[in-house]
Amino acid sequence: MLKPQTILYDQMVKLICTLGDHRDDVNCCAFSSSYLATCSLDKTVRLYHLSDFNELPYSPLKGHTYAVHCCCFSSLGHILASCSTDGNTILWNTENGLKLAVLEHPCRSPVRICRFSPDSTYVVSGAADGSVNVWNVQSFKVCRSGSVKDGSLVACAFAPNGSFFVTGSSCGDLTVWDDKMRCLYNEKVHDLGVTCCDFSLQPLSGNVEGVKYIQMASCGQDSTIKIWLISFADPTGFDMKYKCTLSGHAAPVLACAFSYDGQTLVSGSVDKTVRIFETRTWSILHTLTQHTRYVTTCAFAPDMPLFATGSMDKCVNIWQLEPNQHFTGSALREEPKISVDNWSEEEVSVWLSRHGLQDLVEIFKRHNIDGKELLSLTKESLVGDLKIVISQPNP
Questions:
Q1: Which of 54, 187, 269, 371 is deepest in the core (most CB within 10 A)?
Q2: What is d(CA 189, CA 205) in angstroms, rounded to the nearest whole number?
Q3: 302-338: buried (b, 16+ CB within 10 Å) or exposed (e) per residue?
Q4: Domain residue ranges of the chain, discontinuous segments joined by +
């Protein structure tokens, strides 16, 4: 159920629509370049077009038998992973909604978190028994595994270059693993538990002695967000430094996410608010109060000034940041780019929407315009075949 609306909080942030299709708490949301995925305590995963936020014909995806805790896309968006209390991580084909594989936890422990590696070769799953499994996406088999000493694994994030990943536990520990599952770092950083962690994709300027540092945010039950500086480069090896603590939320912080240009951080909390920080001074730019219950998840679109927030109020809100609000379209996800001639019809529709051509989306869909067709269009075919009126500039 799509509720189109425009609620202007100020000149920089506006609520553009609310998705209210889930029948229970929304646990996670994730973007690809074409779709938004959401998952819920109601056992389903739902998929929406980014061009108009209408639900896909094959949505919802029904394959889990208990609550779905997390969902995430592969780097190119062709595969969606979801994980559940039922102990399964399911890989879905986003073109048709069919299951590619069901990855069963070896001990059937509830799976709380899943993340693809940046190159989508692997998907990591973290479980309630503290185990972490690295699955090969082609063979659908566990290739490496490890575990933490105490607590459930509830958070996971890959470094942008894929050389290591971080897990967070319900006991408050952050653990850093290299690609061979060796523990590089472990420390208790949040009292009562970690809830989420996320990397900025942009390295910090002003690198020290040639070493590039990237920023990571973690949040927890202690109502704080902590910022970390991390480097991983030979011959210096791994280094992780605490930078600062962000306060402002009045209750546990359940989610945090960096924008793709690294200039904005969004967080969601048990206090029902969403806070937007700018990452130069870490000042709070906005506090959003649209949700009526705990805010459980937040995510940025990869190359559009949009972010989504989900809540125990069963709704997902889609927000737009104005272009001058710390967003640059050139700061895109560090991922393999699909050449235009390989674009699907949906990717063409998203491209049109990004460039303010929403009125053409239905026309292009009706004529099945994919990437190859897009490249072959001429002024004559636009006017003659698609019946698009091209206005002439004033002399």
A1: 269
A2: 26
A3: bbbbbbbbbbbbbbbbbbbbeeebbbeeebebebeee
A4: 2-321, 340-384
Q: What is the pLDDT of residues 273-316, one digit of tens each?
A: 999 999 999 999 999 999 999 999 999 999 789 999 999 999 99
Q: How far apart are CA 365 and CA 374, in angstroms?
A: 12
CA distance 143 to 157: 18
Question: Could you tell me how many residues make up the chain?
Answer: 395
E strand or H helix that includes residue 372: helix 371-376
Q: Which amino acid is at 376?
A: S
Domain 2-321 annotated CATH 2.30.130.30: no
Q: Which of 125, 176, 179, 178 is nearest to 152 (CA)?
A: 125
Amino acid at 302: P
The H or E element spanning position 165 is strand 164-169
Mean pLDDT of 316-327: 75
Extract the tokens encoding 39. 């998952």
Where does the pLDDT of residue 332 fall: very low under 50, low under 70, confident under 90, or very high at 90 and above?
Answer: very low
| Structural tokens at position 90 | 């399911």
pLDDT number for residue 174: 98
Encoded tokens for 294: 């705990």
Q: CA separation (Å) from 43 to 2, 71, 86, 274?
A: 20, 12, 10, 25
Fold of 340-384: DNA polymerase; domain 1 (1.10.150)
Q: How far apart are CA 348 and CA 356, in angstroms?
A: 13
